[in-house]
Amino acid sequence: xxxxxxxxxxxxxxxxxxxxxxxxxxxxxxxxxxxxxxxxxxxxxxxxxxxxxxxxxxxxxxxxxxxxxxxxxxxxxxxxxxxxxxxxxxxxxxxxxxxxxxxxxxxxxxxxxxxxxxxxxxxxxxxxxxxxxxxxxxxxxxxxxxxxxxxxxxxxxxxxxxxxxxxxxxxxxxxxxxxxxxxxxxxxxxxxxxxxxxxxxxxxxxxxxxxxxxxxxxxxxxxxxxxxxxxxxxxxxxxxxxxxxxxxxxxxxxxxxxxxxxxxxxxxxxxxxxxxxxxxxxxxxxxxxxxxxxxxxxxxxxxxxxxxxxxxxxxxxxxxxxxxxxxxxxxxxxxxxxxxxxxxxxxxxxxxxxxxxxxxxxxxxxxxxxxxxxxxxxxxxxxxxxxxxxxxxxxxxxxxxxxxxxxxxxxxxxxxxxxxxxxxxxxxxx
Length: 430
Known about the structure:
Distance between the termini: 58 Å
Helix content: 10-25%
Number of strands: 32
Number of helices: 3
Oligomer: single chain
């Protein structure tokens, strides 16, 4: 760190550290409640540069034992107080340590849809250096609306999380609930990791936006009773059929290596791109799920009735490991749109006895689609096609089939025409 940067940090602590110390625990509680001595929390120290440290400024311990909920809640309330003309003004720093949080919404608890805000940044010291352990009471984690570390009710856009590890200390807790009718969008995660057993990673609800979200160089570990990213939770949506605007989700250079559960579940459609990385499910569900049984899917796209929105999925340069017959790469029942795999490989365990019987890619087809395409992929097992459709709906170009000759690569349900799949310059197992 250069001298100028050290000087700015020291000045920040001189400006704010004294004020925070003077406020003490009561002041932190007042900030967490959104007000200070009956006033709006905007009565914060003047001249503050907009960087707060949950340890230096709000007294978090980061020792893995002390409950730091109040410190994080105070840091968020302070950041909220600095919103001016709809623009955020604060970076929340989380230094090295293991921070125990038991209060739902302590990291982010936005519930002011009439006061929209734009721009909030949570900055850790690095993956596995700054860790937040979310351990709410078990009764809260099992409640109907779940227990979320972050909640955004139609308020914030442009939120970024950097260099942080999030661990569920209570099985069934959830990381982020986002409700939007136009006010929640543009989330970015870089160099972050999730561990522990979650109900949801991110659960999206509402009828508009919840869009433009990016994950870059992150690791998705742990386990998910439902899904890491679930679009269309329908807790508060006034018209669930309108949940069709889940647009533009990018996952780049990811390490998706988790124990069980679904990675992405988009029952209301969406526009999703997954580019580069390794995707592995290391185990199987300990108990059967009412909908999935023991299966875990990287990409599960069922289709409840809804208005027509985007239905587009693209996977590129990804290596999948199918270690167990309960692992599914994709199960798609979208009624239109496109699905494309380009330069992907799921043959790492093609030598195992169960591999030839895998049906890890599954599609339900209609006359309108989805249109399915595989380019330059190496594929294990056979691909299953269901539903009635006229004409070619799936195409394989220059692919290698590891388990079966081309004529036995597709498993067609009764009623599915033989002409729905076309092969071009493919190579079959020897």
